Queue: 2 jobs
Job 1
Amino acid sequence: MKDPRIVFMGTPDFAVASLNALVEANKNIVAVITAPDKPSGRGRKINQSAIKKYALSKDIRILQPTNLKDEGFLNELKALKADLQIVVAFRMLPKQVWDMPDLGTFNLHASLLPDYRGAAPINWAIINGEKKTGVTTFFLNEDIDTGAIIQQESLPVSNTISAGALHDQLMDIGSKTVVETVDLIMAGNLEPQKQKSGSYKEAPKLHKENCKIDWHQSGISIYNHIRGLNPYPGAWTLLENHGNQIELKIYESELIDEPHEFEIGHLIISKKHIRVALKDGQLDIKDLKLAGKRRMDAGSLLNGYEFDRGSKMF
């Protein structure tokens, strides 16, 4: 078949890789849809999405609706006469949008569906200690992340990788998978597979409560929790020191298999190390950020910060 007219929907850098791969493969991108510009930072400077910046550099038409059900936007979208729509890291679409093109609308999701449906699949795969993850392309339907699977690509997950590094790996293989999915659709030899029903691992939205470290968990669970939230939004805890409670984030750590006689959460401080007493060993904190201070390695913090003998994490 002829090259389909494609409308691409996305917002962050993760989506830019897929859009760029489509452009480099000479796919017919007739427009991109992305989030409206919004103020950010201390100066409240108006910020454009990563997708908008890329689209401007390639002279691709841009739509930025605030309401996806707005009649004016729907008429503008219909006028594009898209054969296919592709969604990567955007937001939930109403049926009148995803059901519009003849070839349908497919989404790229950063997990091996049906596991890790939801907003934070990369983070939860690491938090749960998975050894394998991947990407999935699937056709959209009424429910989130439940449509028929078109293609999947898997990727091993090392036991030291951070969420940020895994994000970049999945972004790369995801961009290739998006192009391959378009080629499959164009070839007309598609056999989408219905997702099996049952109980599967979930990837709910990250918030303050589920990012807090529970020091009573096993050492490996705490270690995975920290790397699964590095660099964003960051695993956090409270430090009790000199009678004060201070919030801090931990970004990098190492498990130390050494016995101790301290209570869980007690800090074991030396000239070069900040370690936390666990129920099954110690956690050596490598990289952290005290509230109101910059992110730094443990050695730099120890140069200018004093811990008392009873300091602890909780």
Job 2
Amino acid sequence: MAKMKLYYSPSSPYARKVRVLAIEAKLDKKLDMVNVALSPVAPNADVDKHNPVGKIPVLSIKNMDLFDSPVICEYLDHQHKGRKLFPRKGRDRWMALRQQAMGDGLLDAALLARYEGFLRPEERRWPDWTKGQMKKIDGVLGQLEAEAKALKGKPTIGTISIGCALGYLDFRFGNYDWRGKHPKLAKWFATFSRLPSMKATVPPPA
């Protein structure tokens, strides 16, 4: 298999999803990692060449660039012969994709709240916007708490997405005590966080 080039940032939760899946699929040694710096207000010219949206992660392979973490993850899951992280059929597949959607939805809201409070000039910040994003986060966390039993078992794209989303809350929202109201989810995450793939991709100190 030819070497693949992954444009990423150690602090990007979406890139972390790709990196965790690559490790679980034993493909991480096949990735040429390109650490880039960018933000919505400070794009990266190299990334722009490979992704018209200008976001990471981007996976550059022969004659094609793939972007958006669900697409990259599914591509990688087709490149190995081990246990699939995207279940192939039936209820297991739809549950994993549904969990991925919840994890990504939580991340989307968390990033928007982060950008509002960190990138936007203080005099232009909109508290109701942040409140609205935090409401989405609370909604996802409540649903995950109710479904915590379904998260158990070997990693899938669903639980990887959720694990990376919860890790991002710890990384960027350290004062937000999500564990207090969601003890079952917190217990699952404590176990999931001990996976070598999760430990190897913890973002650097904020």
